[in-house]
Amino acid sequence: MFEKILIANRGEIACRVIKTARKMGIKTVAIYSDADKQSLHVKMADEAVHIGPPPANQSYIVIDKVMEAIRATGAQAVHPGYGFLSENAKFAEALAAEGVAFVGPPVGAIESMGDKITSKKIAQEAGVSTVPGYMGLIADADEAVKISNEIGYPVMIKASAGGGGKGMRIAWSDAEAREGFQSSKNEAANSFGDDRIFIEKFVTQPRHIEIQVLCDAHGNGIYLGERECSIQRRNQKVVEEAPSPFLDEDTRRAMGEQAVALAKAVGYASAGTVEFIVDGDKNFYFLEMNTRLQVEHPVTELITGVDLVEQMIRIAGGEPLSITQNDVKLNGWAIENRLYAEDPYRGFLPSIGRLTRYRPPAEVAAGPLHDSGKWQGDAPAGELAVRNDTGVFEGGEISMYYDPMIAKLCTWGPTREAAIAAMRDALDGFEVEGIGHNLPFLSAVMDHPIFIAGTMTTAFIEEQYPEGFNGVELPEQDLRKIAAASAAMHRVAEIRRTRVSGRMDNHERKVGSDWVVTLQDVSLNVTVDADRDGSTVRFDDGSALRVASDWTPGDQLARLTVGDDSLVVKVGKISGGFRIRSRGADLKVHVRTLRQAELAKLMPEKIAPDTSKLLLCPMPGLVVKLEVEVGDEVQEGQALCTIEAMKMENILRAEKKGVVSAINAAAGDSLAVDEVIMEFE
């Protein structure tokens, strides 16, 4: 077995590989750019080598620089993670020339299946049903428009060497095809160093389900069930689960056997994923094969007990698989939520900055330990797992140069319902401050009836949040629980304030029992009766809720029991109450005396400034190009400029008709959030 492995990646996946290598007794080498000097993966590795400036095309995807790091450290093998060089055949060839093992498939498999155009041709020749599309290379935007018309709108424009949602656009018209073709080429070139594009029919109302395969160099191949990846935004997966709530055993077996047959046809040896589009009648169509480890691999590990990274390393070392298809048992249910540095309240635009607070929920083991990739038995009923794969830490910085993913939060349960319940609690207990993030949105998805029923498609986010995400309106039952909890916490805080030393004599302050709790435009009159074990909060209608907690003023996370239910809320202090965040809702909760509540009704409402005649930069980013000039008349929906952030190009459009009166930025400028780009008459 190898003694030293270099991880040609960064962030969360580099940390993930280091953990398994350490478990196997293998030393690790990290590589890092200027932006990642203080990163977690650098601190975790046994050695670290600097490879260049922050942009990936000057550091992480420069093969020569990675090869220099390998030579300098004497690494015997390289794990590429995902993205960057993970599906680059030239990189695998360079490693082979140096006598360094590639912890991934053979070069031939990467070339044939890693390239989406070639893989589709091979799939067709093998009799695999594929989505209609144009498999050849596309020269320019005019040809892209012509091909799109021949296929029929809508079409998907995709980067041949792409992945992770980069270089992908859906076009519904000639104009969108022309625009999407150029943006896809630009993103593909910047992210992968390969700007080849192909076009295929966009299948409406599909489910995205993928099969995990594992093959060795001795002709053995197995599949480890499927992952449901239908909840996506901009073709980027957000929520994954295993198994799929949609498939039956016959369909699972058919998809799995076809995936393994396809892998064997190209001499595949490593972990890989075959992706399918599945329609409502369970007909499945081959999309592509990812010749690498997938981001969402933890959910497969949680339901099978197989450490996929360990298996990849052993296969690269020449070992045969120790697992047969009969050994693969799907145990329970696992769900993964991707925590992104993007603000759901601002159209999910990237957010960068320092993590002033980062406190993930505690990781909890599920069931028995596994050895050699096999479960030792069934996991105990009711025992839940929490796993958090991350590459950041409190005080660390989220950079504009890389993917915005902060962490992958996973839960396991004996049933899907149990896994969802565990995920809800884990999300409520996940503390992130300092940047915009999608925790509220993830919580909202976990409570959405369509997700709970398991009937989602890849159009879920667009259909359920057509105007974007604006927070969650909690039902009355949940509001009453939060009101009761807030009243009880407020009483604790008030009592603490009465005990502050240095009070004047004869000025002892009494804490009353009657309060008015205002939240989500609802006011509730409550009476708080406290004792040593908690508080009983009574409402005007005669109902009451018992509140118990060890919360103390200043704690930013409160775990309470309200009535018969547990409640986890994030707590922030505001004037006259709390900022409470729970289950996707972000609430200002005011707890006032009766007189204070009476006076509060007379206060004027603060009106936000008018920015309707300004184009503000919605995220920190780089101006790629300006589409208009001063004096131009623009129409609603017209492209105004393109901003690049976190490897994605974002086209800013006019919200209404107007005339450009001033332009305050130029191509190449780096802008901050809310910086004025243009002004309109």
Describe the fold and architecture:
The protein has 17 helices and 41 strands. The strands form ten sheets. The protein has an eight-stranded antiparallel β-sheet with strand order 14-13-10-11-12-15-24-22. It is globular and about 85 Å long. The protein is α+β, with helices and mostly antiparallel strands. Helix 4 (89-98) runs antiparallel to helix 5 and helix 7 (141-151) crosses helix 8 (174-192).
Write the layout of secondary structure elements.
Blueprint: E1 4-7, H1 11-23, E2 27-33, H2 40-44, E3 47-52, H3 63-73, E4 77-79, H4 89-98, E5 101-102, H5 107-114, H6 116-125, E6 133-134, H7 141-151, E7 155-159, E8 168-171, H8 174-192, E9 197-201, E10 207-215, E11 221-233, E12 236-242, H9 249-265, E13 270-278, E14 284-290, H10 297-304, H11 308-316, E15 333-340, E16 342-343, E17 349-350, E18 353-354, E19 357-359, E20 370-371, E21 374-375, E22 385-390, E23 397-398, E24 405-413, H12 416-428, E25 431-433, H13 439-446, H14 449-453, H15 460-464, H16 476-498, E26 514-519, E27 522-531, E28 534-539, E29 544-549, E30 557-562, E31 565-574, E32 577-582, E33 585-592, H17 594-600, E34 614-616, E35 621-626, E36 633-634, E37 639-645, E38 648-653, E39 658-663, E40 670-671, E41 676-680
Parallel strand pairs: 1-2, 1-4, 2-3, 4-5
Antiparallel strand pairs: 6-9, 7-8, 7-9, 10-11, 10-13, 11-12, 12-15, 13-14, 15-24, 16-17, 18-23, 19-25, 20-21, 22-24, 26-27, 26-33, 27-28, 28-29, 29-30, 30-31, 31-32, 32-33, 34-41, 35-37, 35-40, 36-39, 37-38, 39-41
Helix pairs in contact: 4-5, 5-6, 7-8, 12-13
